[in-house]
Design goal:
Helix 2 packs across helix 4 and helix 4 runs parallel beside helix 6. The chain contains 6 helices and 8 strands. The strands form 2 sheets. It has a 4-stranded mixed beta sheet with strand order 1-2-4-3. Strands 6-5-7-8 form a 4-stranded antiparallel beta sheet, sandwiched between helices. The longest helix has 27 residues. About 35% of the residues lie in helices and about 30% in strands. Strand 5 and strand 6 form a beta hairpin. The chain has a single domain, classed as Ribosomal Protein S5, domain 2 (2-Layer Sandwich), CATH 3.30.230.
């Protein structure tokens, strides 16, 4: 999708569109120097007109908002869960997720698309012979689920998300293992059974996303 990045993709989940790029650097943060471990990190941002009304650029405000910091840390944590950092070697890959258009689920789309960009960047490393074994041992994808109008719903859009009685984000590996679960209720509570039902729905959603990831990187 972009000329200069080692890996890039555009992910579209309904009306949520996120450009994800992966950039390789032959260095690591100071706390990892001489450890033999690689690092994967992420940055996240929303373009001013990705929403219904123009948002001020965070750069013009002089600092990132708390939501932005939370999301980019989540993206980094999630992607690292599928990485063998010893196999990656002492190098860093930064995944940038820029929301072009938002309609709910931007963090989930960023994680799912970010993995594709990361996969493509790692493929270049392997093709060049810079690494011997594949450091990505599983897919990583994420999906939102919630209870809207009394019904479990997969991949909430903005109207559904804003009115959902329960909503959550599920980050999982391709093998079905959980990386992170964020669930909350708004104005009500939810039962263990409802949580299990949403988890089952998320598993189906992630399976579909992993299939799309495979098609993207193999195509």
């Amino acid at each position: 999708m972009t000329k200069h990045a080692e890996g890039s993709c555009l992910i579209r989940m309904g009306d949520t569109h996120v450009l994800c790029t992966a950039s390789l650097e032959e260095r690591v943060p100071p706390f990892l120097k001489n450890t033999g471990l690689g690092w994967v990190t992420a940055e996240y941002g929303m373009l001013p007109r990705s929403t219904g009304t123009r948002m001020r650029r965070e750069a013009s405000a002089g600092k990132q908002g708390g939501r932005t910091v939370e999301i980019q840390r989540l993206i980094g944590r999630s992607l690292r869960a599928g990485v063998d950092r010893v196999a990656l070697g002492e190098r860093q890959i930064t995944v940038d997720c820029d929301v072009i258009q938002a309609d709910g689920g931007t963090r989930c789309a960023s994680i799912t698309g970010g993995w594709v960009a990361l996969r493509l960047a790692v493929n270049k490393l392997m093709k060049a012979g810079d690494i011997i074994s594949d450091p990505l041992f599983d897919h990583v994808a994420a999906i939102s689920c919630g209870v809207y109008a009394g019904q479990p719903v997969l991949d909430l859009d903005y109207p559904e998300d804003s009115e959902a009685g329960v909503d959550g984000n599920f980050v999982m590996t391709g093998g079905g293992r959980l990386i992170e679960v964020q669930m909350s209720a708004e104005g009500a509570t939810f039962s263990r059974g409802e949580m299990d039902e949403l988890l089952g729905l998320a598993e189906k959603g992630v399976a579909g996303l992993v299939a799309a990831q495979k098609a993207a990187v193999e195509g």
